[in-house]
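Subject: sequence -> structure tokens, single chain

Hey, anyone have a minute? Need the predicted structure for the following. Not urgent.
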Amino acid sequence: MMKRYLFILSLIAMVFAACSSDDGASAPSGGEPLETVQLYVSVPGAQATRVGDPGQAVPEGVDWDELAVMIEYTGNSLPARRRIVKTISKTDFDHLPSLDADGKVKIITLDVEPGDVYIYGVTYTSEEDLSPKTAIEGWENNGVAVEELAISNNYADGNIERQLSVATGYYDLKDGKHTGGKQIFHISRPADGDFNRLVPTVALTRLAAKIDIQWDAEDAYTQGYTDVEVTGFTYGSGTDIAGEGYGRLFPDLYSGSVAKGGSKAFYNDSPISRRNGRVYHYVFPDGVSKPKITFNISAENTDGALSQEKQYTFTFTDKLKKATWYKINTTIKGVTGNADIEVSPDGSPETTIAN
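Reply:
Had a minute. Here:
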């Protein structure tokens, strides 16, 4: 069953009734009067997981301390501040007034100039050395395009909950339908008595993809093998980038061809079992990389002689998707057979490595 827990931002332009040209918040020097904008912010509970729930999950909570709402003006007539970032700490977020009785939807306000805008949102942990907070602040000061904003795959290394608490999204509605691409929202002063304003919705989903590999070598023993071992896994993006590399905060918006991912060896927290085991790897997609995961299987014959050691590869046929759980179940019957096993973007293949 596919589960998708969303971080949802909704934005409604709210303007006080006008009686004179002095209405509205003070504008920047030479700018138009500001509009008071309310944002309704909803976040999921602590036990949320991700898209593609194929079975029993490891515990995955929520551990972010800052929400960044990013507004980018577009078009021919741009204000002096083309990009605006509003950050809210988790503590302040929890104390915001609630829209609903359960306190799941919080309300914040912004005073911004009217115009055509794109709206984005990101959650993260600001105290991490490799937090995307720095990249977002640089973007606000006319840095790189939002599609290029990167996050290190070393972010919160070893803290799974913090890795999984990075969530991103953007306004993508057109004619009431989700388009899968960012769309313009128009902020303007409403006519007197106009209360039927469009409500733009931004759905934030977890950024990290989860690669979950489970194997069972029990059948290999019935085929005459002993001491069957899976000796480790290495994730690789096929680039020359040193270390684990980077993902992009909005990988589905990136249309270029520059891969940023790196490589990493990974294991279970506990020793790898000879007969069965499970490993997890979390990575931020870059919108380009089609990774490969390599691993070795070794085994002996029943007479004690080394039978064979062979390298196998899981090859992803498409670029990694954000907020997706790739579950791969593998039955090991020996150390022969197809060494290159395809992993489709939709799926959790049941693979058999035959004797």
